[in-house]
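Example 3.
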Amino acid sequence: MPATYRDIKTDILGKITRGEWKPGSLIPGELDLAETYGSARATVNRAMRELADEGIIERKRKSGSRVRLTPLRQARFDIPVVRHEIEEQGRSYRYALIRSEVIAAPDWLRARLALAPGDRVRHLVCLHFGDGTPWQHEDRWINLTLLPQAESADFSASGPTEWLMSQIPFSSVEISIAATAADEVLAQHLDCAPGDPLLMTERSTRWNDQTVTYVRLVHRPGHRMTTRY
Amino acid sequence: MPATYRDIKTDILGKITRGEWKPGSLIPGELDLAETYGSARATVNRAMRELADEGIIERKRKSGSRVRLTPLRQARFDIPVVRHEIEEQGRSYRYALIRSEVIAAPDWLRARLALAPGDRVRHLVCLHFGDGTPWQHEDRWINLTLLPQAESADFSASGPTEWLMSQIPFSSVEISIAATAADEVLAQHLDCAPGDPLLMTERSTRWNDQTVTYVRLVHRPGHRMTTRY
DNA sequence: ACCAGTATTTTGTCTGGACTTGACATCGCA
DNA sequence: TGCGATGTCAAGTCCAGACAAAATACTGGT
């Protein structure tokens, strides 16, 4: 009964959580482990590599692997498409386009998207509902210099997120989360009082080193992002 | 010059971002890819596995691998220890203990930590400063039933986070992020106006299926959590 | 037409062997 | 003493081949 890489992983993790292998201490070399578990070094290597990826151990050539002093805690949050998020909770999804315009980019946006003066952008404001109550407010700016198709696209039936995903298959993103206070308009749309604290997600999507779209998503009052590991 | 798994990964990712392989389309089998790249199947497998881990492709036995329709966007946020976060920015760190008490767990906490009536907890309130200005407010509750050592520990010089890390080597956690409004006390400590929106992180740390500590971290006004990928 | 069992395909994992790379140690020479 | 060349070790990567497992396709019987 040879050990799988999964067995090895959980066993090592167990030794660490139980305190048998203390933070900072050296873990036996791959060759040793391979022998004790009765498996090949490649198998041990995979187990150790994944533990290192997860921030639990630290590996260095020549010196060996050791338990991290401060286990690097990193949380993985899924950033879902609103519609999927809502539908996965068994709620009905509704989308509403509030405003749609094509304008010259305001200065703050020009700086953010690295646009030239006079460059035009498509500006969209929309709302996403779950079971009829407001769920998320979307304030979206699309760079028309990079995505001229966006000028003629129709966003009255479905949101810009889904359209954009069909246009830009995969891209690099910068996501930022902060708290903000509801202004008059937001309060009305999200059905809360002005000044209420709201969770906001900002996202800039880059493609070929150029920012193609910037969006500010304001979540419904009380919204939480949760993850466990 | 054979292709490394890294080469293969970037090449495939390139084909996807350039739109050569569209979302939903089938990617050649590992055996095919191994031949086209002139490497072993194991090498291709590793490249594909990592792409799958990153949420870019979807793999299924027998049916093969395909580009995800909705690239699973997941953000990895580092959850740093405050002190490290501050010191990495080249700022000076200061810690202050505001309140320390051992009390019977209030009802809301009892529910959260699954405690029996009368069980006692250590309650700590502290502040973390960066370059002299308030950075983070920490409201920490430690389960004394599971961690009796916490009753006699001294938190006047350094924060409970660091002490806890020495006690619980590795554990599973539930993290939740939300927006909250500053109350009178928070406003005073964090040097802002009451009602100001603040980003709050809540964390429950479990060990052996029992919640050992619950903490509510309220960040300074304007704080953002950022990540890019 | 339906169903159960079987074949096939594709990914998942493992093996034991090899070479590479980065980091450290040490030796020899100026 | 200082310093560069060389050695050594452990992790990093790769290979070819093998079997396992899951999911689909197929096939024959009812």
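Residues 5-17 of chain B form the longest helix (13 residues). The mean pLDDT of chain B is 89.
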